[in-house]
Amino acid sequence: MTSPADEAQFSESTLPRQDYMARVLGYGVAAATTLAGFMEGFFGASALVVMLICLLYPHLVYMLSRPFKRRRGYTTRQLLIHGDALLCGLFLSYMQLPMPLVMLFLIMINTSFIIVGSFTAWAFCIISLVSGAAIGYLLFGYTKPPAVPDLVFMTAAIGVGIHLAISGFNSNRQARDLIHLKRKFQGQVSRFQALSHQVSKYVAPQIWESIFSGKRQVKLETQRKKLVVFFSDIVGFTSLSEQMEAEAFTELLNTYLTDMSRIALKYGGTIDKFIGDGIMIFFGDPRTKGTKRDALACVAMAIEMRRHMLKLRKQWAEHGMTAPLQIRMGINTGYVTVGNFGTESRMDYTIIGKEVNLAARLESEAEAGEILISHETFALIKDKIICRTRGTAQVKGFRDPVPLYQVVDYRRDLGANPSFINHDTEGFSLYLESDKVKDHEREKVAAALERAARKLRKQVDA
């Protein structure tokens, strides 16, 4: 956060004080020039009134405009600058200044307008200045002035020089302060981004993105939406935890959750929570591709998770873990309540409803390595995914028996030329996804399979 010292260096509230000092200095130069002209007999007695106005005007404007600056600082500042331009035009025309003095004052006034900060603002200030001068000449007429006395010219020149020097100094200081604050704010932004990245690890990426993009408000609110809900856990994982050391068990669990989370995000799933080795995921919020495509994405995710579990089993076996762990999954589609639940100080973005409970019950009913889906999900994916009827189950919380469907595989992988082959037995393990083998590795894989096949064939023939 910015410190009080930083805020004092440069803030919106410092601009009125800087404008006030610049106004005092500019009108002070006009008052000094008027007094010098009066003393030299160049101006009449009315010059004393002009001098008094020049001395009092900056202070009166500062005091009277303070209430408005608090509410509408920028608008008030622009109006006062245009008022200065009109008044300066009237001053130049009323005093009937000779050209050398007019040029000096125009340099000073023009510099002040340039500092305002934009070409448009400068152009409008010039228009206001010319308008003030034109009004003045219409009201007071024009008389060709005599030559300007040296004292008057020197007074104006010294005053304008001091005004330009101080204005330049203030502008340079403001520029340095802005550079300092820019660097400080860049550091704050980098720190905020780092912190937000750490916080994002505690919520689903889709939820984090919707909050930080401003699409979603962090408040207690819910809505009804049709979502696809997924539950999974590892069969036998609880008993395994009692047999393994805590460190090895933690590493195994984190590896499993990391890989499964990556697959879930690949297919667009919103990870709701981890429950030990269990995972709860839903599709259709905060982003949806339509219920049918959401259901296909969820089932595709489940199939890839099941296949990936075979890889993990092989990796774990290489490290001495021989328990044949398998994943079981349940998927249901229906209307749920989704949103922020909890209190204003602690919220949890999740889903509730009987359709969520059904997905959890389907996962409990599933056997090891099985993906069970409800009829609602089956109706959405049956044209792309081969499923088998698995009868019905009396599920807690539901009066009527619930029809069950077992996901087999993609239709394309069950034809005459499947892309996925898996076979495990004692002394042999094969896991092949032919469409994922790189072109330059295909020949090596084929040669290895042929060598293995020849060796096995010799043993069979013998």
UniProtKB/TrEMBL annotation:
UniProt GO molecular function: adenylate cyclase activity
CDD domains: CHD (cd07302)
Family matches, as SMART domains: CYCc
Any matching Pfam family: MASE2
Keyword 4Fe-4S: no
Superkingdom per UniProt: Bacteria
InterPro entries on file: A/G_cyclase, Adenylyl/Guanylyl_Cyclase_3/4, MASE2, Nucleotide_cyclase
Bilayer-crossing regions: 20-39, 45-64, 85-107, 113-139, 151-169
GO biological process: cAMP biosynthetic process; intracellular signal transduction
Alphabetic keyword roster: Membrane, Transmembrane, Transmembrane helix
SUPFAM superfamilies cross-referenced by the UniProt entry: Nucleotide cyclase
Guanylate cyclase domain sequence ranges: 228-363
Official protein name in the record: Adenylate cyclase
Organism the protein comes from: Bacterioplanes sanyensis
